[in-house]
Every structure is written in structure tokens, then in C-alpha cells.
Amino acid sequence: MLDFLAGLYRTHADDLATVIDGQRELLADGTITPQLDDVEAELTYLLLRHHRPSQVVEVGTYYGWSTTWILSALRDNGSGHLQSFDLVDHVCGTVPEELSTGRWTFHRGDLRETVEKVPADTGYLFVDADHGRRFARWYLEHLFGRIATGTPTSVHDVFHLPRARPFTEGSEVLRHLERSGTGWFTSSRAAAPRNLRALDAVRAELGITGVRGTSRNPMIFFSMP
Question: DSSP E strands: which ranges in 78-149?
């Protein structure tokens, strides 16, 4: 997996550097509160560039930091549409029109009431919403069940510590993946410091410096079981 990701960094280094510059400008405007740390945001962009999904589903937008990373990848692919779901619509006032026009649909409301709007042909699933175990148990059954096996998927806020906290979304997702024999990858500084060091070495080689300078990276990446 590390060799694969290092290859993506090298393949898309110039485009990634341009996106990072754009994200720095967004951050400087002060309208977006960022959630993703640097490496996990970059990996999201790179995986979207590689898989070139026609439909991306984002669960949890807040002020749109992940939304703009995803839309940047779809723009650079020259294809793809993002369907975003959240209870609040802060993101509607922060995502630049040049990123959103023609490639983004926002659905406001409780996903438990709008899950039928998740496209059957979803090609990438990104989850960063309610981190409680109750919501996790719901989406593991009702959302994951709608997504085709093998679909690239990421879930945020799993590894802030070397192990997922008990009674949380992260522990529920990991248990679900373990039961199905599904492997996962993380660049979490707490849980997988060697992975993070290896990716940081590639980034340093390519002259890539993150937007925020943050390195917790608690997200996990896997293929839908």
C-alpha cells in the first residue's frame, strides 16, 4: 500500500501542489474551518484522481474543507459528481462556485431520512459525520449495504490514539471490517507512525508541504467489504 500511495504522490505531484496552493488561499480567507489533517487530505485527493469515480458520496461537510479537496480532484479528473449529505448547510456559503458548478449536489437533512438519494453507482464513499456508535451501527447496515463491494471508502476520526476509543464510531467500523476480513490503511501518527514517516519522506522528496502543518491523520482507508 505504501508503494502504491508513493506512486500516486509522484504521478500527481504537480497537480497536488497546485491544489495545496488553492487550499491555502481558502484557509487564509477564514471562511472554512478545516477538519482533515494534511496527509489524509492529500491521500483523499490522490485516491480520487486514481479511481476516477463518476459518483462520490460525502457524509459530513461542516464548512467544506473535505468538500473542496474532493471537488478539486473531480475538477482535475475532468469528470465526476459529488453528492454531499449533512444536517447543516454551512458548506453552501464556503465552497467556491468554480469548484461546485456542474459537479456538486448538497442534500441537507438527516442521512437516515435521505439515504435513498445515495447513488447506486457510488464510486467513492467519504464519511466524516456523527462519531457516535449508534450512528455508526446505523450506517454500517443501511449505508454500507447500498455501496458495491470493492468501492474505495474512508472514515475519519478513527485513530486519535494507538487504538480506537471503545464505544465509538471507530471501534464499530473496525469491528465490522475485522468480521469481514477487510484490511485497512491509516497514516495516523498515533496508530501507524511508520506509515506516516514513509509518506512524509516521499512528500519531502517531492517538495510537498501541507496546508495546515497538522499530522494526526486519524482517517482509515479501505475497500468496501
Answer: 81-86, 104-108, 124-127
Show the cell assigned to 97: 462556485
Least confident of 30-39, 116-125, 202-211: 30-39
| pLDDT score of 36 | 97
**Rounded Cα distance, 93 and 96, in Å:** 8
Asked if residue 153 lies in contact with residue 76, where contact means CB atoms within 8 angstroms, the answer is: no
Rounded to an integer, what distance in angstroms lies between the CA atom of residue 180 and that of residue 162? 22
Q: Which helix (H) or strand (E) holds 179?
A: helix 169-179
Sheet holding 124-127, edge to edge: 104-108, 81-86, 55-59, 124-127, 152-155, 220-223, 185-186
State pTM to two decimals: 0.98
- CA separation for the pair 77, 45 (Å, rounded): 10
Which residue is it, cell 450512528?
Answer: 135
**Three-state secondary structure call for residue 145:** helix
Q: Helices 2-11 & 38-51, crossing angle to 10 degrees?
A: 80
Cell of 192: 501507524
User: How far, in Å, CA of 222 to CA of 225, rounded?
Assistant: 9
